[in-house]
Amino acid sequence: MHALWVYHDVMTKTIQIRDVPDDVHRRLTARATEERRSLSELLRAEAVELARRPTMAEMLDRLASRPRLDVPESSAEALAQERAEDDLR
User: Fold this and answer.
1) Closest CA to 45 of 55, 36, 56
2) Which of 21, 41, 43, 84 could form an SS bridge with 37, CB 3.0 to 4.6 Å?
3) pLDDT of residue 9
4) CA quadruple 33, 36, 39, 42: dihedral sign
5) Average pLDDT of 12-39?
6) What is the 3-state composition of the chain as percent helix, strand, coil, each rounded to the nearest 5?
7) What pLDDT does 4 receive?
8) For helices 22-34 and 39-52, what crossing angle results, to 10°?
9) What are the CA-CA distances from residue 79 to residues 19, 28, 70, 71, 85 (Å)?
10) 31 CB neighbour count, 10 Å cutoff
11) What is the model's pTM?
């Protein structure tokens, strides 16, 4: 009886994709066959991977929260800094 409750707690969702071009469907089906998976298994794994990737906004937030490096504005400035450091040695 407990197993039935666990089963009901797991919600599965269905995603339907319409108007998939024939050539795309053929290639995905062939790829799934090569990997010895069903098309649903292949697409589910790809969807999970896609959902795990950060969005562009999340990436920009991460980058904005990182400490800024003191990077020269130009290669000429970088060369001047390098030469100044060499002079101090």
Assistant:
1) 36
2) 41
3) 59
4) negative
5) 95
6) 65, 0, 35
7) 57
8) 100
9) 56, 51, 14, 12, 10
10) 13
11) 0.59
